[in-house]
Amino acid sequence: MKKIFIGTLSTILLASLAIPALADQITSGSSKTSNIIEITPFDLVTGAYQGRFEDQGIPSNADLLARIRSNKIGAEELVTSAISAGRLSENTLSDQSYLNSVEDLIYNLDKD
C-alpha cells in the first residue's frame, strides 16, 4: 500500500512539473494566435446596454438608445468597440451575418 501511495504521489508531482513547462512552450511558439473569446451578437448588444464597453466610448442604457435612434451608433461601432476590448477578432467586421444579427438586435433593443 505504501509503494502504491509513493508511486501515485511521484506521478502526480512529475505531471504537475511538466504541464507548466509544456504550456510555456506552446504559448511562446504561437505568439501570432490570439486568446480572444468571441462573444455572440446578443452578448455584444446586451453588454453594450449594460455599460461593458464604456471604456471604448460606447454609452450605456438610455444614452446608448439615444445614439442608436440618432444613427450615431450602429453595428459597426459596437463591433469595433468589442474588438478594441479584446472580445472579438478583427475579422468580425467583415462578417456580414454577424453584423446583420447585431443590427437586428439593436433594432429590437430600440423597440422595447
Structural summary, described in words:
With 112 residues, the chain is mostly helical. It folds into two domains: 1-33; 41-111, no CATH class. Helices cover 65% and strands 0% of the residues. It contains five helices and no strands. The model is unreliable at 7-32 (pLDDT under 50).
User: What is the overall silhouette?
Assistant: globular
Write down the domain tally: 2
Number of helices: 5
Low-confidence stretches at least 5 residues in length (pLDDT < 50)?
A: 7-32
Helix amount, in percent? Answer: 55-70%
**Helix-strand topology string:** HHHHH
Structural class: mainly alpha
Q: In angstroms, what separates the terminal alpha carbons?
A: 67 Å
Mean pLDDT: 79
Total beta-strand segments: 0
- Largest sheet, if any? none
Strand content: under 5%
Radius of gyration: 22 Å
Quick synopsis:
This protein has 112 residues and is an all-alpha fold. The protein is built from 5 helices and no strands.
Supply the key terms.
single chain; 112 residues; mainly alpha; 2 domains
Helix and strand layout, with pairings?
Layout: H1 2-29, H2 41-50, H3 61-69, H4 75-84, H5 96-111
Helix pairs in contact: 2-5, 4-5
